[in-house]
Amino acid sequence: MSSTITQQRLTGRAWAVLFVLCGAVFLEGIDVSMMGVALPAIRTELGLSTSELQWVVSAYVLSYGGFVLLGGRAADLLGRRRMFVGWLIVFLAFSGLGGFATEGWVLIVARFVTGIAAAFMAPAGLSIITTTYPEGPQRTKALLVYAGTAAAGFSLGMVAGGLLTAIDWRWVFFAPVVLAAVILAGAITLLPREAAPDRQHGGFDLGGAISLTGAMLLLVSTVVRAPEVPRLQTTLTAIAGLALLVAFIGIERRVREPLVRLGIFRNGALVRANLGAILLVGSFVGFQFIAVLYLQELRSWTELQTGLALMVIGIDSILAPTLTPWLVGRFGNGRVVFGGFAFAAAGYALFLPLSADWSYPAMLPSLILLGLAFSLAYGPLTIAATDGISEQEQGLASGVLTTSFQFGSALGLAVVAAILAAADELTVDDFRSALLVPLVAAGLGLLAALPGLTRGANASR
After folding, report:
1. Is 267 exposed, middle or buried (0-12, 13-18, 19+ CB in 10 A)?
2. pLDDT attached to residue 347
3. How far is CA 313 from the centre of its chain?
């Protein structure tokens, strides 16, 4: 059977395939956001130091960011369905291992391998969508539903994490196992089978893979650990990462079958979309970190209260698959992305007057605007980053985009954490200073989206 769904409208089977892929990206999002809520309970039971506890999060971020481009290329060369199903099994197994951990190092290793699994699974799933659904309204609809589900998983994970941690922190690991098992059964049954990869035209660039993965690991490590290590160490890891990146570029220029065809970055829409992805997710993750600390440490809210307060941002899970497709069709991709960044900037600006006794209704406009921002910008950025890319490089384009999302998360968190860590005791003024980071990032996102306004206008005609 053909792996491409050719009808103009999504059929029942097309929705079923999309449901499986959305389940996987929802799993990734909820897995990450649940972990933040569970960290205090994990520290208490396993007796972890602050440094060890940080690695429960950083191990996942490092491996995800380090291997995701390799994962995208592997999907193109070895088969997207094969990579998706195989690494979903690994994700399931090591998430379960984390739930059984009685030592900190076991938990950290489990998170590192889970991050590798996500790095191979995510670009495979996204490229299955971009190669299964034909370019046009059907692919646009599928991508917007997919992106909305990803954002919803991230938003709702804090609430789920609070509920599960109230029972036992180990359920933060066991719950994804149950969800992954259901998704795995659906993937084996529903995902379209592919023709065997063309080995003659699909050589594997080992030198490029090693240098790129090493560069990404070092660069992401530099960003993640910058707030807590000496400046000299930060400088050395950054230099080493950049050196490996230069070596990677040199390798890619010489080999016949490069891991990453450098010419793909001549696509201006792809470059702008990835820059926008870094700024959108980086600003939001930074804001979320600020909001959580403000509510829990300054206001003494519980984890569950904090999760419920931020849940309104999950409005994007409703709007992304319903309102956003209509807006893209009416106004064009570029204008919708610009509108998303405008809402984000307004949301961060409205949160600046926070005080030590701020009421929840005063916070609510910012949270609603951020939900709108994600629903408008996340999906269209995904479309822009993969639109016009050949089928043979959809995995690569998906990997580049996933790298941007992951690197943006690490960068936004690191910069905000560095500002807050400089304070001896957190005050309202410290939180206001940190809020300037997401506000500036959203402003830069507006500038990055400007070239798409004319294109978006033309597309809507």
Report:
1. middle
2. 96
3. 16
pTM to 2 decimal places: 0.81
Question: Nearest to residue 221, comparing CAs of 209, 234, 232?
Answer: 234
Q: What is the DSSP string of 390-434?
A: -GGGHHHHHHHHHHHHHHHHHHHHHHHHHHHHT-SS--HHHHHHH
Phi, then psi, of 321 in degrees rounded to 5: -85, -5
Q: What is the pLDDT of residues 304-322, one digit of tens each?
A: 788 788 888 878 778 877 8
**In the chain, what is the straight-line distance between the N-terminal and C-terminal CA atoms, in Å?**
36
Backbone dihedral angles phi then psi of residue 203, each to the nearest 5 degrees = -65, 155
Q: Which residues contact 305 (CB under 8 A, 6 or more apart)?
A: 295
Q: Is residue 435 very low, low, confident or very high in pLDDT (cuts 50, 70, 90)?
A: very high
120 token code pair: 């191979």
On whether the CB atoms of residues 409 and 308 are closer than 8 A, the answer is no
Instruction: Give the residue-averaged pLDDT of 420-428.
Output: 82
The residues, any chain, with a CB within 8 Å of residue 2's CB and separated by 6 or more, are: 192
The CA–CA distances, whole Å, from 415 to 130, 202, 327, 433, 435 equal: 33, 40, 33, 11, 11
CA distances from 262 to 197, 208, 259, 272, 282 (A): 22, 12, 9, 16, 25
Please give the Cα distance from 235 to 170 (Å, whole number): 37
Per cent of the chain over pLDDT 90 is 32
